[in-house]
Amino acid sequence: MNNNSSHIEITKIIPENLDQKRLDLALSNLLPEYSRARIQTWIKAGYVKVDGKLLQSKDKISANQNISINAVIADIGQAQPQSIALDIVYDDQDIIVINKPPGLVTHPGAGNTNNTLLNALLYHYPELSKLPRAGIIHRLDKDTSGLMVVTRNLISHNKLTCALQKREITREYEAIVNGRLVAGGTVDAPIGRHQVKRTHMAVKSNGKPAITHYRIIKQFSMHTHISVLLETGRTHQIRVHMAHIGHPVTGDPNYSKTNTISEKLHPTLRQKLEPFKRQALHARRLELQHPTTENLVSWEAKPPKDFEELLKTLTKYDGPVAIGI
């Protein structure tokens, strides 16, 4: 087997116990480090040959046939390692847990190929060049801070990607939202691409299912500090859902109908809110089943300084009513 950052080459002989099995099922058994969906994609793309011939996923294979695979495994493009400091909360041979600061883009995109979390990961962990998206299995928006898990090998990547799809990874956030919520609740509203603003998302009847649970940590006269638990993981989900119920995340430049700061607020609070030009959203807790030990593990991270200072100012100048976590 030959592995590098752009492709993998594998040769296998079908054993007796997989005789007359579907090709995709047989390969899933032989190569547990890869998901069945990825294997099916390789077969469809023509990366898999059986005795030198191309087959379909559903075709049956026989014992002692030769399998050859020459497939693309990474999709990090031309991203280069860059010496960017990272707050590593935890790492072992299988996973890395990072506390991402606000302002750091997760991975390269159009017109943004440098200074991302992915570039930083390639520098600190060069072996990640052999993994899809350098081991990143989920993302946080540029200006959202908090905990992310990154995988360090294909087996962990496959297991945690599947766990994420099955909603088995717990991601808890805290946010400051505009307006005074009177109780916690659940937003169950499908999300899809915005019809006009193509970089934005929106609640749409034909969108993908999206469920967000929220509860109050502390009420203020014109803001609320909340805890948010994601049941699904759609792009911009918390930001879209909170805006949908009339309580956009404070400072959100995209989903707040107005960024006008009320003149009713104390002047000191107004001075704190005016320069706060990002969404006040932080991924504070992450819980998952470790891909190797299978133990349930969790991590917590406090919000960054600007978030904490905004909370202190709200507490002092916006009439808090404590509810408690």
Description:
This protein has seven helices and 16 strands. The protein is an alpha+beta fold and 325 residues long. The chain has three domains: 2-72, Structural Genomics Hypothetical 15.5 Kd Protein In mrcA-pckA Intergenic Region, Chain A, CATH 3.10.290.10; 88-165, Pseudouridine synthase; 170-322, Pseudouridine synthase. Strands 5, 6, 7, 8, 9, 12, 13, 14, 15 and 16 form a ten-stranded mixed sheet that branches. A four-stranded antiparallel sheet has the order 1-2-4-3. A two-stranded antiparallel sheet has the order 10-11. The radius of gyration is 23 Å and the shape is elongated. The protein starts with a strand and ends with a strand. The model is unreliable at 1-5 (pLDDT under 50).
Q: Tell me the radius of gyration.
A: 23 Å
Give the name of the CATH superfamily of the largest domain. Pseudouridine synthase
CATH class of the largest domain: Alpha Beta
Strand content: 25-35%
Shape: elongated
- Strand elements, count: 16
| CATH-assigned fold name of the largest domain | Pseudouridine synthase
Structural class: alpha+beta
The major beta sheet can be summarized as: 10 strands, mixed
User: Which percent bin holds the helix content?
Assistant: 10-25%
Q: Whole-number average pLDDT?
A: 89
- Runs in which pLDDT lies below 50 for 5 or more consecutive residues are 1-5
Descriptors for this entry?
16 strands, 325 residues, disordered N terminus, four-stranded antiparallel sheet, alpha+beta, Pseudouridine synthase, ten-stranded mixed sheet
